[in-house]
Every structure is written in structure tokens, then in C-alpha cells.
């Protein structure tokens, strides 16, 4: 473990861990997941128990290979190395393919890690599964050990807009991106009794960070800042070269995973500065749409509608700058 900077020493003196987090993300895809990972690792209120690299949908332009989960694990390890945290957190590759149907789990070292952490009896810290990708690993873990459903909370970036709350963005078609990675896995989780905090597309699209801010608040701050900026900029240049200019902002849509787990209120811990509504968990149809008639009878879930972007990004840039200065 590297020596802590004075900033980190003081932060860890006044901030003690009060939750456990398993991070599950498709780090070889949209680099917003790399930003989320760096921010989470720099947040002392959570113990990161494992980092899982998840697969993308076959043929995804971000990584069209057949080893996207393996590549995601490598990308996550690079972030840890640039933060000076190499070897301090287990990094595991999940399955490189999705589930073929809702009854066929795919066992991996990642599913075993989820089960083992959820079934621990030697800690009272609540456990969050923070997922910014498809739900292959958590769905498979649940099918292999259903008891984990009552022993963790899933915080998921994914799913389309809910009727009466928001409308789809212009030009959208087909299932939402993360949902489309593994629809059978989503059907498993939404038919389970697992607590769900969902950040659907209309909410995660609120996390706009301007290129001017990225240039001034991220890029200058050490090797990790340059790495994160360059990964995002590469996407913008590639999109522009294909006639899809991204404009002046980038959606850091996976960062709410940090906001909702690490940046909770001091007393009566909860993500109190963000807003959600309680909805009955819908079923997921085979085409990725919602069916409002649940299989197991009504049960509630959180659907986040507004995110405290000020807190989220102010905290991120403060930690990034202090880490670089150290």
C-alpha cells in the first residue's frame, strides 16, 4: 500500500467505512466506467471488496472482440495501477458471454466472489452491488445462491424510462444499452426479491460534464487524470470521424454508482440529496420493455429521477486533484 498523502490521511481520519461495495462494470466499453472506478476507489466511506469486469454485447463498437470481460478486467487493473493501488483490491473477469435464457446461470470467479461476500457473517456493513453494465454476474450469482437476494442491494445503471416519469431521448430505438447486454439476466433480477435501486436512462443522462471542465478539472491531475481524459477524448474523436459529433459534453453515466453508495448523508445514511420514486418492480419482457404486471406480486423498488450532480462531480474533482498533488 503506498504512503497516503496528507489529504488522504486526514480524509481517512474523519471518514470511516460504513458500507461494502462490489463494483461490476464493462470497463472495455464506454470509458465513463473508468471515471466511476477511479472515483469509487478514492472514496474511503466504502470498502471495495471486488472489482468485476463484465462483458459487452457481441460486436459492440467499443470492443468488438470475444474477450470483453477479460479486457474489462485489464482496463480496471490499469486504473488501480495509475492510482497507486495495484494489488489492493481483487479484480476479476466475469463471463465473456451473456445468459442464453433466465434459467441458465454462468458460473465464474466473479459470481463466486459475489456469493462469498454476500454470505459473510463477520460484518454488519451493508453490501451494495454497484453495476454499470449488463446483469450477467449478479443474475448468475442469484440463480446459483438465491439467499443473496436478501443480503445485498443492487444499484443498477440501466433500463429505459418509466411511463409517467420521463420520455425516451430523441432518436432512441430498441432496448436501453445496458439492458440490451443481457436481457435474460435482467429478467432474472427483476423477477427476484432482490432490492433494486435503479438509475434509468433519463436519470443517468443528467450526468453531463463539459469538455472545458474535463480539460481543466481532470486532464491536468496526474497520470490517472490524463488517462481518464484521453479515454473519453478518444471516443469523441472517433464519433466525430464517423459523423456523430458529441458536442460540448460527455455523459459520465456510471458515476451515480459512487453518488448513491459512497456519498450518502451523514446521519440516517441514505442518498438524501438525490430524488427517487417508489415503483412496483416490473417484469422485463423478452424485447427489453417493461411489463407492469409483476410475476411475484407487487414489491417496491427505487427509481431515481434526479441526481445531485453538483455533489458528485465536486467530490470527484476534489479527490482527483488532491491525489495528484500528493
Automatic annotation (TrEMBL):
<protein>
    <submittedName>
        <fullName>Twin-arginine translocation pathway signal protein</fullName>
    </submittedName>
</protein>
<dbReference type="InterPro" id="IPR036452">
    <property type="entry name" value="Ribo_hydro-like"/>
</dbReference>
<feature type="domain" description="Inosine/uridine-preferring nucleoside hydrolase">
    <location>
        <begin position="21"/>
        <end position="237"/>
    </location>
</feature>
<dbReference type="GO" id="GO:0016799">
    <property type="term" value="F:hydrolase activity, hydrolyzing N-glycosyl compounds"/>
</dbReference>
<dbReference type="Pfam" id="PF01156">
    <property type="entry name" value="IU_nuc_hydro"/>
</dbReference>
<dbReference type="InterPro" id="IPR001910">
    <property type="entry name" value="Inosine/uridine_hydrolase_dom"/>
</dbReference>
Amino acid at each position: 500500500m503506498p504512503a497516503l498523502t496528507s489529504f488522504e490521511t486526514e480524509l481517512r481520519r474523519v471518514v470511516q467505512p460504513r458500507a461494502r461495495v462490489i463494483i461490476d462494470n464493462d470497463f472495455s466499453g464506454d470509458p465513463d466506467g473508468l471515471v466511476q472506478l477511479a472515483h469509487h476507489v478514492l472514496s474511503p466511506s466504502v470498502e471495495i471488496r471486488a472489482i468485476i469486469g463484465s462483458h459487452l454485447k457481441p460486436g459492440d463498437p467499443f470492443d468488438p472482440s470475444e474477450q470483453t470481460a477479460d479486457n474489462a478486467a485489464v482496463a480496471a487493473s490499469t486504473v488501480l495501477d495509475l492510482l497507486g493501488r495495484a494489488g489492493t483490491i481483487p479484480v476479476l473477469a466475469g463471463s465473456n458471454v451473456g445468459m442464453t435464457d433466465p434459467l441458465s446461470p454462468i458460473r465464474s470467479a466473479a459470481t463466486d466472489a459475489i456469493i462469498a461476500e454476500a454470505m459473510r457473517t463477520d460484518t454488519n456493513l451493508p453490501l451494495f452491488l454497484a453495476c454499470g453494465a449488463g446483469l450477467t454476474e449478479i443474475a448468475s450469482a442469484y440463480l446459483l445462491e438465491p439467499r443473496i437476494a436478501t443480503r445485498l442491494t443492487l444499484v443498477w445503471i440501466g433500463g429505459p424510462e418509466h411511463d409517467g416519469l420521463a420520455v425516451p431521448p430523441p432518436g432512441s430505438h430498441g432496448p436501453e444499452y445496458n439492458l440490451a447486454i443481457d436481457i435474460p439476466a435482467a429478467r432474472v433480477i427483476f423477477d427476484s426479491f432482490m432490492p433494486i435501486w435503479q438509475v434509468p436512462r433519463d436519470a443517468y443522462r443528467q450526468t453531463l460534464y463539459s469538455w472545458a471542465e474535463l480539460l481543466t478539472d481532470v486532464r491536468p491531475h496526474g497520470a490517472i487524470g490524463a488517462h481518464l481524459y484521453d479515454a473519453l477524448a478518444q471516443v469523441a474523436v472517433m464519433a466525430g470521424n464517423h459523423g456523430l459529433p458529441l458536442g460540448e459534453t460527455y455523459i459520465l453515466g456510471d458515476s451515480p454508482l459512487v453518488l448513491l453508495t459512497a456519498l450518502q448523508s451523514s446521519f440516517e445514511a441514505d442518498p438524501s440529496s438525490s430524488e427517487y420514486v417508489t415503483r412496483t418492480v416490473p417484469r422485463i419482457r423478452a424485447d427489453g420493455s417493461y411489463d407492469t404486471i409483476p410475476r411475484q406480486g407487487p414489491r417496491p423498488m427505487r427509481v431515481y429521477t434526479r441526481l445531485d450532480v453538483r455533489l458528485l462531480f465536486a467530490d470527484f474533482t476534489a479527490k482527483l486533484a488532491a491525489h495528484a498533488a500528493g
